[in-house]
Amino acid sequence: MFVLGLNGGGDAVFDAYFGLSEHAYHDTAAVLMQDGIVIAGIEEERLTRIKHTNKIWALSVRFCLDQANIQLEDIDYIAVYSNEDALNKVLKQQQLNNPLFYEIGDARKFFNYLFQREFNYCLKDKQLVFVDHHTTHAATAYYMSGFKDSLVLTIDGLGDEVATNVIDVRNKHFDYLLTKPGADSLGLLYWEVIRFLGYSHFDEYKVMGLSPYGCSETYKEPFRRLYTLLPNGDYSLRRDRAIELFSILTPRQKDAPFTQVHMDIAAALQEALETIVFHILSHFQQATGHTRLVISGGVGQNSSMNGKILRSGLFEGVFLPSFAGDSGCAYGAAAYVAHRMQPELPVARTSHAYWGTPIHDDEIGSALESWDSFLQIEKMQNRSEQIADLMIDGAVIGWVQGRSEFGPRALGNRSILADPRVASHKETINAMIKMREGYRPFAPSIMEERVRDFFEVPTEHADFPFMSFVLKVKPEWRAQLPAITHVDGSARLQTVSRATNPSYWELIDAFGSKTGIPILLNTSFNNNAEPIVDSIDDAVVCYLTSGLDYLVVGDYLARKKDWQPEDLAGLIVSLPKAAVLLREDRYISHSERGFSYALVWNYDSARRHVLSEAWYKILQAADGEQSVGGLMFILGFSMEQQAQVLEELPGLWSDRLLVLRPKANL
Fold first, then answer.
1. Contact by Cβ (8 Å): 527, 545
2. CA–CA–CA angle 574, 576, 578 (5° rounding)
3. Which residues contact 89 (CB under 8 A, 6 or more apart)?
4. The whole model's pTM is what?
5. What is the C-alpha separation between 129 and 79, in angstroms, rounded?
6. Pairing relationship of beta strands 469-472 and 604-611 according to DSSP bridges
7. Which of 198, 325, 591, 648 is a plausible cystine mate for 298, CB 3.0–4.6 Å?
8. Contact 448, 500 (CB under 8 A)
9. 212-234 pLDDT, tens digit each
10. Element (H, E) at 284
11. Which H or E element spans position 660?
């Protein structure tokens, strides 16, 4: 039996037809299961290159179907991550603002419309199944954990008007013990506070990384006013009191430095979250007697909180997936429906999430050679030994192997790798490659067999394949592992199994044999303007626009040639499909008018990038067939205009405001 799980919105990548909220239906994804086993799964952002996209799942669905070599008519059930009544309510509310929804009517008609539009396919009777948002979160963690019985905690911002659920699950039966509405949303409380730190939606994990630098006691009392712990594991929030933080600080501007006040606020927020969660868990562990816990929902990606739960001893076993956020709902919806329709399916631990785009050995050479103006390429005879030596010599590596990971965390197939013993790597990678805040920590990947040698593991089981827990580095190793040890002596680790990822395991083993430390620094292969790379071309673009030393794809090693901005003029240029070009005629003073040029995005008009007139003209004329140089010739640019274009080109490419491809990739 095939079950396709979906989450996401309804707009095509080039359109904003429905105009759903940019913070709703985010992290679009599709997962295809056959008899409860994942055949394929991918986040739409990997394919559209739009972070946290809420666009339609069209490319993800096509990918899943292609991987299984089936058609939509072969799918038994299509599982959607939303309560049908709740979605109907949303659609009715949309009708008040957008007459385009009049013709849609209800949720089933909406999905029929989408499948007709994207696939020319009419859904079969009873093919479409709706699953409550928080039930999909719960199913994600429960069915991946392999625990037959467990306590389930789901926490996020809001989904189907619910923010938190506590569920007693025994042999696939879900018994809901506590349900909290949006007014008591821990996710929304977290978001309301981090705005004072200069952050917004999808930045919560950054604040988690900042919190160890602060002292939670400094602002303990102001945060204590934000919540009340109630009997029987319940709680209530006063989110409106977050505005009182103005008495402590003025909201930080985006590019302003962090001060101790910001760090202390982050620490107090983290402590408040953990206090509430431990209050919930302590009561319901006693009430149910469960010895195992699973957690999901966006707040479940708070790996610092998860590590403290693991270390607390409240539960013998704790499990979280690497995709506790909304992308995981595609998996949860599919798993929930599969097990409901096939009760005989076993509950078994899912050991990996390598479900995405495969890199085939026979395509790597030609794909890299199409970039030969920029890359020097060689095929390695002993990949693990050679790359280990390069890292020991100080190199930072872009690493692409096998199928891409499902979820927001690189698990060794689309990773940036380096020697964890080199303290300067933290600063270098943050500044020159990831282009992000300098305080942000990096994760270690370690051979599964050696984890207890380097980390304090509080439980009997020592497999942490999904980078979901922060644990303590053993004191004797902290000074030797400065690039992956956070300021509080912790690290968000990933254990690597030879069975699930032999290529990555062998690289770590080779590095360990040479250094005595079978650990690598591992962070996601992307810069701050894009999602994790997926294809070979994605990897090459990120490599060429960053400070990475080498790129490894399969058995191929690529080095940068000494290329100049003018060499980019030979590449084919196109406008990203979600981009909108603006030419504005407006007053620039009380008496003078002038033109201005900008690029905005159809999914987030607040993201605005000023363009020069020359680049406005090039992107307006770009048809995906002409090179930058060819367009400058066609447009009759002067030498001065050409110089300006070439000067601005690397920055625009690095910010992903345009797409460049060699002619061979057309």
1. yes
2. 150
3. none
4. 0.96
5. 5
6. unpaired
7. 325
8. no
9. 999 999 999 999 999 999 999 99
10. helix 260-288
11. strand 659-661
